[in-house]
Amino acid sequence: MSIFRTATGGMLLCRAEPRAVRPPAHLLRVRLLLAPAGEWTALVPEDKPWLKGEETVAETLSGWGSAMAIGAHWPVLSLWWEGGRAGFALLSGFRRTASYAWDAAGRPSGEPDAMRALAARLGLDPVLDLEDLERLTRPGAEDGETRLLGLIALLARAGLALPAGLTPGEPADRLRASARVAPGAEAVQWSGWRDAVRAELDAVEGGPLGPWVRGPKARLLGGAQVAAGAPLLAWAARRRSPGWAAAGALLMAQGGLSLAYDRARARC
């Protein structure tokens, strides 16, 4: 039996540089390791939050990715593996989540249009790349590990270059150890609201968000984030879900900061 069939772990892949990823990752209020991955940024959990609640690793990472992607101009791909199964969820703004999974034998399950959404949102070739992605959904001899690694190989065409050792399917402890020694890696840890606000404003000041940081669009986005975050946070508390609780808190924080930033700049 391979290590993959008993390993549990996951990571987030953000199609953005570390400078853009750091502020929303900071607001998740969980301990993460951030590492450059070509034109992407990889985020690896420092601990195993899925052991503290009722969520699976897939649900935990999907919650984090969803919160980070709302309001961002770049997509987030959550990868997970647990008990021989593996899969991904693609989060992009307020768009519908596209997810897919394979069992230990490689039998696929998921949304029929997931690979098409993946290709479109990541700017892959709508013919050649999509054809290769759709091969991962067809029955065959490849197991779940091989299918997930095949997905990673295809994402190299979209600029993904994972550091050595950051291999999907590895146990969480080994994945964390590899992330710590990856070139340019850094720890992202909650250190209070003052530092979080400063990091978020620094990102806004130097970021490419343009008209979204001020004016009607900024107020609309900020209000939507607060409106979505409040009930999500309450729901997560009832369910004792650390992943979705972090997502709700991040949404409320980002929305509040967006509204506060717009108001402060309007007075200047």
Description:
This protein is α+β, with helices and mostly antiparallel strands and 268 residues long. The protein folds into 2 domains: 3-187, no CATH class; 210-266. The protein contains 9 helices and 8 strands. An 8-stranded antiparallel sheet has the order 7-6-5-4-1-3-2-8, sandwiched between helices. A hairpin with a 2-residue loop joins strand 2 and strand 3. Helix 1 packs antiparallel against helix 7, helix 2 (57-69) runs parallel beside helix 9 (242-266) and helix 8 packs antiparallel against helix 9 (242-266). The model is unreliable at 203-213 (pLDDT under 50).
Write the topology of this structure.
Elements: E1 8-14, H1 18-27, E2 32-37, E3 40-45, H2 57-69, E4 76-82, E5 85-91, E6 98-102, E7 108-110, H3 114-121, H4 128-135, H5 144-155, H6 172-180, E8 186-188, H7 193-206, H8 215-239, H9 242-266
Antiparallel strand pairs: 1-3, 1-4, 2-3, 2-8, 4-5, 5-6, 6-7
Helix pairs in contact: 1-7, 2-9, 8-9
